[in-house]
């Protein structure tokens, strides 16, 4: 079994180049190289903070201003962040495969900024809001919001357009993700700790019907054990190499 990263990239590109339907599941690690903090681990957002204090409907009910402070802080920081080489490579992969779906747990919108088109945002988007009274959704990209933003239509309290623990995922997004995972021949799982459900189970669903599972992460995760291939390192370094290897195979098909 090859363990040299360059050799693994070659082997993965060879296996992927024969396929037409491929999915990618991304997590916070993809945006880490853009300066967006991850959730868990060193320097993570949850460090010194209980997720239940900021990322649950109960926390919002208890202290909406405290929760908005957390989200407004993150929105402001995000304005300085740009897509990195990992985001760009993922956008490039869309042109490599006939049927490509990007499923992201990230709420930062950086995949779209990098040029990805077929994106499923499983956990919502931090730039959107939803009225807690009339349920209308609003796009507030780049806007500075108050500590208690309200709906222009009905005056109700707005909440961040993200999915908190204990909440259902947006039904359309969940269905689109399930469909893509159900028909894919391979899934690339990039920069996620693979602990938050239902996203964490999706690679397993793909594997159950025979899809190739490729994990790209700085370190081992609960998925590593069942992945067919693991590439350990930075997404922003590995993915561009994978794209180059795939392009080389496209322009130089085997005789
Ligand atoms: C790099 C790198 C580099 C770094 N290159 N790699 C079944 C069993 C048990 C519990 C449940 C279950 N089903 C549902 C639950 C409950 C819950 C859950 O999963 N809990 C677990 C923690 C146990 N799930 C839910 O509540 C979900 N809803 C749901 O299932 O509804 C139905 C239901 C409800 C209730 C009960 C049962 C069913 C909703 C989940 C919503 C998650 N929301 C958050 C916050 C979003 C808003 C915000 O941003 O504030 O989403 S939590 C947070 O975690 C965020 C992320 O999207 C998510 C995943 O994190 P991610 O992306 O994996 O980041 P990290 O930080 O964990 O990992 C980063 C990784 O990158 C690391 O591995 C690094 O090594 C790596 N890395 N730099 C490559 N450069
Ligand atoms: Zn309203």
Task: Provide key terms for this protein.
binds ligand BJW; binds zinc ion; 10 helices; 255 residues; elongated; alpha/beta; three-stranded antiparallel sheet
Description:
The protein is an alpha/beta fold. Helices cover 38% and strands 18% of the residues. The protein is built from ten helices and nine strands. It has helices at residues 5-17, 29-32, 51-54, 57-62, 64-78, 85-93, 110-114, 171-183, 199-208, 235-251, and strands spanning 21-26, 99-104, 119-121, 124-131, 137-139, 158-162, 186-190, 212-217, 229-232. The strands form two sheets. The chain has a six-stranded parallel sheet, sandwiched between helices. α7 (110-114) links the parallel β2 (99-104) and β3 (119-121). α1 (5-17) packs across α10 (235-251), α6 packs parallel to α10 and α8 packs parallel to α9. The longest helix is centred in the last third of the chain and has 17 residues, at 235-251. The protein is elongated and about 65 Å long. The chain starts with a helix and ends with a helix. The mean pLDDT is 95. The structure holds ligand BJW and zinc ion (ZN).
Strand content: 15-25%
The unreliable regions are none
What's the helical proportion of residues?
25-40%
> Structural class, judged by helices and strands?
alpha/beta
Cα end-to-end separation: 26 Å
Assembly status:
single chain
Contiguous helical run count: 10
Main sheet characteristics: 6 strands, parallel
Mean pLDDT reading: 95
């Amino acid at each position: 079994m090859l363990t040299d990263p360059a050799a693994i990239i070659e082997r993965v590109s060879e296996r992927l180049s024969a396929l037409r339907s491929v999915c990618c599941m991304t997590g916070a690690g993809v945006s880490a190289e853009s300066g967006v903090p991850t959730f868990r681990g060193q320097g993570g957002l949850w460090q010194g903070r209980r997720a239940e204090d900021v990322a649950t409907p109960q926390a919002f009910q208890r202290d909406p201003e405290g929760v908005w402070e957390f989200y407004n802080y993150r929105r402001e920081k995000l304005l300085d962040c740009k897509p990195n080489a990992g985001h760009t490579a993922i956008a490039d992969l869309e042109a490599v495969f006939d049927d490509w779906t990007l499923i992201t747990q990230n709420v930062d919108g950086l995949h779209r900024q990098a040029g990805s088109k077929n994106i499923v945002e499983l956990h919502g988007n931090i730039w959107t809001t939803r009225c807690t009274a009339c349920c209308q959704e609003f796009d507030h990209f780049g806007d500075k919001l108050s500590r208690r933003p309200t709906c222009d239509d009905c005056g109700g309290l707005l909440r961040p357009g993200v999915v908190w623990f204990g909440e259902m995922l947006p039904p359309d997004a969940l269905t689109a993700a399930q469909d893509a995972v159900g028909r894919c021949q391979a899934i690339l799982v990039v920069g996620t700790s693979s602990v938050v459900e239902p996203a964490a189970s999706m690679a397993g669903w793909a594997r159950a019907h025979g899809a190739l599972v490729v994990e790209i992460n700085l370190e081992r995760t609960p998925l590593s054990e069942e992945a067919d291939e693991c590439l350990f390192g930075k997404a922003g370094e590995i993915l561009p190499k994978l794209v180059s290897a795939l392009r080389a195979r496209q322009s130089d098909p085997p005789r």
